[in-house]
Amino acid sequence: MCKIAVCFKRHMNKDEFEACWRSNDDGMGYGFLKDGKLNAKKGFMIEDAAWGEYRMIPIPHVVHFRTSTAGGIAEELTHPFLCTFESPVFKEIVTEDPILFHNGCIRNWENLARCFWTLGKGGMGNYSDSRLLATLIGDMDFLSMRRTLRMALDWDKFVLMKPGKICMIGDFEKYRDIYYSGTAPTKPFQVCYSYGNRVEGTAFGD
C-alpha cells in the first residue's frame, strides 16, 4: 500500500530505492524545494528512468512509490497532488501551493466524490482517493490541512509540503536517516521539519 520516503540528509541508495519500487511499482513521483518554491514531478512508470532522475534531485526531498488501490494504474495518479480547489493533473510543476503525498486508502471514496462533483466542485480528469483528498483540503490554510488529516484519518500516512516545510503525519519509521511510511512507531505522531534544522511539533503538536 504505497511507500513514502522522506530524505532530510541523504538520498536513498540503489538497494533502498529498488526495495521501495519492487513492492510499489505502479509509479513514482517526488517533491523538493528550489528557489523558495516547490518543485514536483511524477508519472515515472519505469524503474531505471525513475532511478536516473531521482539521483539528481536535491536534499531534502520526498519520494512516493505507488501501489494502486483506487483509480487504477495511471501516470496522472502517481503522487504528489496539488492541494488546491481543483487539484489539476500535472506531470511537472513549480508552485507555492502545498502538495500532498498519501499512503493509505479512503473507504467509499467514490461516494464522497460523487457528492463533491454533484456540487460542481473538483477538477477534470482521472481521480483517486488521494487526489480527491487533496481537492477537499485545497481551500484550507496549511495548519487546518494538517489538523484535518491528523484527526480524520488515523491509520493513513501523509506528507504535506509547502515552501520551507515538510510535515509527516502518521506512522513513520526512521532508518539510516530516512523516514519511511510504516508502522514502527508505537503511536501516530506528527513532525514538521522547517528548513534550517528546526523541528516544530512532535507528539501531535501544532
Structural Rg: 16 Å
CATH topology: Glutamine Phosphoribosylpyrophosphate, subunit 1, domain 1
Main beta-sheet strand count, sense and barrel state = 7 strands, antiparallel
Q: Tally the helices: what do you get?
A: 5
Distance between the termini: 27 Å
Residues in β-strands, percent: 25-35%
The percent range for helix content is 10-25%
Number of strands: 13
CATH superfamily: Aminohydrolase, N-terminal nucleophile (Ntn) domain
User: What's the architecture, going by CATH?
Assistant: 4-Layer Sandwich
Instruction: Name the strands of the widest sheet in spatial order.
Output: 6-3-2-4-1-11-10
Q: Which consecutive residue ranges, at least 5 long each, have pLDDT under 50? A: 183-190, 194-206
CATH C-level category:
Alpha Beta
Assembly type: single chain
Question: Quick one: overall form?
Answer: globular
> What is the residue-mean pLDDT, rounded to a whole number?
81
